[in-house]
Amino acid sequence: MRKLLLTLATALLTVSAFGAMKVPAKDNGAIKPGVPGLKTHKFGTLKTPSIVAKTPLTRADADDFGVITEAPEGTTVTMLGSSNTFYLYYEEVEMDETYGIAYEGVWTDNGEVYLKNPVSMLDWDTYIKGTVTDDGIKFDFPQPLYRSVYEDETFDLYVDVLEYTEVEDPNHPDGYYNTFIPSEETRSIVFTKGEDGSYMMDSENMLGVTCNGLWQGYGEMFLTLLPFDATPAKIPEGIEYDRSYILADEYTGWDHTVLRPLGIGEKDGTTYISGLASGMPDAVIYGTFDKEKNVLTIPSNQFLGKYYNHYIFMMAGEGETWFDEDWGMEMYSFGVSQEPLVLNYDPETNVFRPVIPEGYDYAYVIFNFGNVETYPCEYYAIDRIYSQGPIKDYAPIAPEVISVNDIEFMDPDYSYAFEFNIFGDNEEGQILWDTNIYYNIYLNGELYTFTSEEYPSLADEGIKEITDIPVQLNAGDDIYSGGNYHGVAFKRKDIQTIGVRALYIDGDIRGESEIVTVNTQGQTVSAGEISIPSKIHTEVFDLNGRKVLGRAASGILLKRTTMSDGSIRTEKIVRK
Question: Is 156 strand, coil or helix?
Fold first, then answer.
């Protein structure tokens, strides 16, 4: 069931929060993990923390196994890490040069050092212990890191010193595969302290994870830790904040315009903008506004805060476009600029437009892992930022059902996988604030409540039960969100109809779409099994009859809706 749902999700995923989905790597002979349930999730083309399935680490497990879950009292130092990071992706081992990793160390009075989450992909909130030396820190291995319980079987995971090797394998096309094994020469790793206060891993071996002496596909090489004490900006109290603004990005390379809802406010000469980073909706960037020249200047290299196991920065960027004869298509590229992002403001139209750096074609805002190398997790080319005015209707348009799939034959614990799209605008074409959009599921005409008892992965998100589901919620592989696309897998066996509606919830404001209901064959039905016309497919065209894919740019457009009874409804819409 889970693999089916993930396959469908990957195939239908739209470009959204923090970049596009990465294509699975080809088999390069890397060793597969030996621990069932050990997995990572990807965030754009990058990683989010690994989660061990089914059972979290309990205090009793930690004490019994010797895992350090709490560091002694001492001086806590926040550090910005970079390394060659090894991780699992689609059950294959890959390596990235990774920047902006969030680390934390605790220095005690007796000369001990405790490093939290030493392997960047495994956000388990456990520590390894080292000792202060004359020129840095020394860690001795192996050390226990985590205990995973999966289907009543216990797996003890260690962090250890690993060295590269080639293992002969007559069944492999190359006759061998690459892996890492516990080092025979040394069981220690030293981090040498630099003049800038940084600590550099002084070893060509790997700081990696093992179980039963076998490498599990996670580890760090050439790890550097730099003390870091930046503080993200916050929206001041009492600010007059306008959430009607939209960023339009027409340089997506996907033949459609991405529209991103923003909030803008000003206080004491500083302008604050939130909503730009879709994975961090509360993150704020700031700039200064020249009221005489109507110019907004936004400094580059702004720290936004921590997203799981990475520190995120906003960087100004500059890009260019050209036509590639070999590919037969227009190409886009961008880089980071140390110069500020400058926007000219037109008070008559309430529109901001970027000042394009000389020699380039457009300006970018880039959300980056770290503040040194270009390692983007999300980025937008800025065509314009405009106000769509007061919201006229808080009811989102109805969801679009994609499919209902019988998955019981793949996993007898499940019945159906339900796939649908939710779009973040109303019937007026206005985009609603995405963090306020939810959806409800109806089974056999009744509102369905998801519980952590039936869906254990909800407990990982701190949810016991839920009916109003945030559109950005991901809970294991059973409740999936990726851009407009959503997938839910059910375990109930008595399902005859499945319904879904979109919601907008903001304090006392509550807007609801119509409920779109289908039977288990995917056919649209009414609540009483009496067929009434409902929307089953919507297309948008410009005035020349050309189909508009995804979000449209400004102008007069025609929306054509095909109803379940075969009729077609056409209406004119205007988008700024």
Answer: strand
Closest by CA to 313, choosing from 390, 385, 386, 228, is: 228
Q: Which amino acid is at 11?
A: A
> Whole-prediction pTM value?
0.75
- DSSP secondary structure letters along 344-388: EEETTTTEEEE-PPTT-SEEEEEEEESSSS--EEEEEE-SEEEE-
Tokens of 305: 């805060």
* Amino acid making up residue 55: T
Provide the CA 285 distance to its chain's centre, in angstroms. 19
Contacts of 439 (CB under 8 A, 6+ apart): 399, 422, 468, 469, 471, 486, 500, 501, 502, 503
Read off the pLDDT of residues 249-277 as tens digits, 9 standing for 90 and up: 887 666 678 888 999 999 988 999 999 98
**Other beta carbons less than 10 A from residue 570's beta carbon:** 9
d(CA 157, CA 243): 47
Cα dist from 576 to 184, 350, 430, 553, 557, whole Å: 66, 11, 9, 8, 11
User: What H or E segment, with its residue span, contains residue 539?
Assistant: strand 535-541
Q: Which residues contact 453 (CB under 8 A, 6 or more apart)?
A: none
CA angle 47, 53, 58 (to 5 degrees): 110
Which range has the worst mean pLDDT, 2-16, 142-156, 174-188, 437-451?
Answer: 2-16
For the segment 355-364, what is each residue's pLDDT rounded down to a tens digit?
999 999 999 9
In 3D space, the residue among 309, 330, 308, 328 whose CA is nearest the CA of residue 319 turns out to be: 330
Cis peptide before 354 (omega within 30 of 0): no
What gap in Å lies between CA 261 and CA 125, rounded to an integer? 34
326: which residues sit within 8 A by CB, 6+ positions away?
Answer: none
Among 3-7, 116-120, 238-242, 288-292, the range scoring the smallest mean pLDDT is: 3-7
